[in-house]
Design goal:
Elements: H1 3-34, H2 45-55, E1 73-77, E2 101-103, H3 113-125, E3 126-127, H4 141-144, E4 147-152, E5 156-161, E6 167-171, E7 188-194, E8 197-203, E9 223-232, E10 235-243, E11 252-260, H5 278-286, E12 290-291, H6 297-312
Parallel strand pairs: 3-12
Antiparallel strand pairs: 1-4, 1-11, 2-11, 4-5, 5-6, 7-8, 8-9, 9-10, 10-11
Length: 318
């Protein structure tokens, strides 16, 4: 491709990113209007997490007819983790914010050395799944979209995102996970109640989505545990622990607040987008990006072994 054409396409992609940024700015204003008095008003994730753990011990939420905490409603996530799980400044894609990582306490994802090198390669080589309107998986769906609606009954917890066609139907009936040989974009999620906390376990993901736009990834053997807890009438404490010893040194946990919309007339409008968006696909391919193929546990173990061999064996020179 001639350089002028390539530069034009890059400018078009930059313009598209700016458009999303401008649209997002109105969303932040709206989200700020939703924040009501809360027992844990701080949206700094580490401070909110500590407050919420304490507040949940004494809060007695309103219950559904089947005796479970009622989380039904429309909620706004108070996090910008889709750009980076780490603390980051304003970018063309979001308004920055503190680290979502609350464990380890330093706010740093405990990634293995080979995997950190791989995620840097990911960012340069591959197009982000969301740019092609693909599903985000767990837990990313819960902080990729700005607004989400929760519905529930005794057997199912339903999460409807405004992002494209993303939704989650989480069974609460005690069923087991599906067979290990089945891999899905959003994985296989099953839920249960632990007191007033909804616990969701997810496995069987195809690992073709990233945890953020900095290329942080996981394998198809990853396990994700999410916990949803009301700490007051209009605040949910959300936390997710990602366990994947193929990629990370230890399990790590992210956390943030969901704030309820108290406007009964508000409704979610879908951010319309179709999977493998042809126009976006063509533009990204034309400037040299590739489609991220995902990673299996076996592939990760081979890459780690090769990395460790290189680190341990001095390069031979003549």
């Amino acid at each position: 491709m001639h350089a002028p054409t390539q530069n034009l396409l890059k400018r078009q992609l930059a313009s598209l990113a700016l458009t999303f940024c401008l649209l997002g700015s109105s969303g932040v204003t709206l989200a700020q209007a939703w924040v009501t008095d809360s027992v844990c008003p701080d949206d700094n994730h580490a401070a909110f997490h500590a407050c919420a753990l304490d507040a949940a011990r004494s809060y007695r939420p309103e219950l559904t007819p089947d005796g479970r905490p009622d989380m039904s409603g429309i909620w706004r996530r108070r996090a910008a983790g889709h750009e980076s799980l780490h603390e980051h400044a304003v970018t063309p894609d979001d308004f920055g914010g503190p680290s979502l990582v609350v464990d380890p306490a330093n706010g740093i994802v405990p990634i293995q050395a080979w995997a950190d090198a791989k995620r840097r390669q990911n960012r340069a080589q591959y197009v982000h799944h969301n740019a092609l309107c693909r599903l985000s998986g767990a837990p990313v769906t819960m902080y990729m979209s700005g607004t989400v609606q929760f519905l529930q009954n005794a057997d199912t917890f339903f999460a409807q995102s405004e992002e494209a066609h993303a939704y989650r139907m989480i069974p609460l009936d005690g069923r087991d996970h599906i067979g290990e040989d089945i891999r899905l974009w959003n994985g296989d999620s099953v839920g249960r109640w632990e007191g007033n906390t909804l616990v969701v376990e997810t496995a069987n993901q195809n690992a073709m989505a990233w945890l953020d736009q900095r290329g942080r990834f996981y394998t198809d053997e990853a396990h994700v545990e999410e916990r949803f807890t009301l700490v007051d009438a209009n605040t949910i404490h959300y936390q997710a622990t990602i366990t994947d010893p193929n990629v990370y040194l230890r399990p790590f946990t992210i956390a943030f607040a969901y704030r309820r919309s108290t406007d009964e007339s508000f409704e979610i409008w879908e951010e319309a987008c179709f999977e493998n968006n042809a126009l976006a696909f063509e533009q990204f391919m034309n400037v040299g990006y590739e489609i991220y193929p995902g990673m299996t546990g076996d592939q990760a173990r081979r890459l780690r072994a090769a990395w460790e061999l290189e680190e341990e064996t001095p390069e031979q020179t003549n």
